[in-house]
UniProtKB/TrEMBL annotation:
<protein>
    <recommendedName>
        <fullName>ABC transporter domain-containing protein</fullName>
    </recommendedName>
</protein>
<keyword id="KW-0067">ATP-binding</keyword>
<feature type="domain" description="ABC transporter">
    <location>
        <begin position="4"/>
        <end position="244"/>
    </location>
</feature>
<dbReference type="GO" id="GO:0140359">
    <property type="term" value="F:ABC-type transporter activity"/>
</dbReference>
<dbReference type="InterPro" id="IPR003593">
    <property type="entry name" value="AAA+_ATPase"/>
</dbReference>
<dbReference type="GO" id="GO:0005524">
    <property type="term" value="F:ATP binding"/>
</dbReference>
<dbReference type="GO" id="GO:0016020">
    <property type="term" value="C:membrane"/>
</dbReference>
<dbReference type="InterPro" id="IPR027417">
    <property type="entry name" value="P-loop_NTPase"/>
</dbReference>
<dbReference type="Pfam" id="PF00005">
    <property type="entry name" value="ABC_tran"/>
</dbReference>
<dbReference type="InterPro" id="IPR015860">
    <property type="entry name" value="ABC_transpr_TagH-like"/>
</dbReference>
<dbReference type="InterPro" id="IPR050683">
    <property type="entry name" value="Bact_Polysacc_Export_ATP-bd"/>
</dbReference>
<comment type="similarity">
    <text>Belongs to the ABC transporter superfamily.</text>
</comment>
<keyword id="KW-0547">Nucleotide-binding</keyword>
<dbReference type="GO" id="GO:0016887">
    <property type="term" value="F:ATP hydrolysis activity"/>
</dbReference>
<keyword id="KW-0813">Transport</keyword>
<dbReference type="InterPro" id="IPR003439">
    <property type="entry name" value="ABC_transporter-like_ATP-bd"/>
</dbReference>
Amino acid sequence: MYAIELKNLWKKYRIGQPRTLTHAIPLFFSDRYQKEFLALKGINLQVKEGEKIGIIGPNGSGKSTLLQTIAGITTPTKGTVIVNGKVTALLGLGAGFHPELTGKDNIYLSGSILGMEAREITKRFDEIVEFSGIKKFLDTPVKHYSSGMFIRLAFSVSIHLEWDILLLDEVLAVGDAEFKQKSLSKMKEFFNSEKTIILVSHNLETIGQVCQKGIVLKSGRMAEIDKIDKIIAYYKNFQNEVGHV
């Protein structure tokens, strides 16, 4: 059985979409309102259970949109997404946090947004707090946290979920030097497990170390899929051709 199946997946955004009626009237008669952007164009993909896949490509190629669609954060314009298993997505650390709530309250809020039930959060609460290293600030509203404290808590909540499929978007190294090492060690445990992981990153060395298979996206299309070493070689050659570093 496949962990993920994508069938003819398309995602279209409208550029200049109005926020209010006042904006809509003048935009309706302008060219800007009519423009559309295709972030994904006919993606077909089958991911086996336990596979570790790296996705690379230039900025704007559709990498983050693809993960958001798999995670159910955004709805495809056309096509089918089939996911077998519980998905956890580390796409934007702290996205579910409320600045006025305490660290403790935000653990429950963020956990519930990420799909955890209250009893599951309670069961893992001490682990989350211990890993974050900010126990003495739990009763402080997170608006008073430093950026490092905020990231530590958000990351800790995310990695203590029960999951079958993990989606990662450039979040393998977060926080200060000590916490980066701690988070990378935790991630290595995940990549050595039998869970399914999809990683988006510009770091070719990291992807080469932890992924078995790779995908190159170009302008919303899947340009190449192969073993990770061949994909990295393909992408480096593409970068040279277009004059990228």
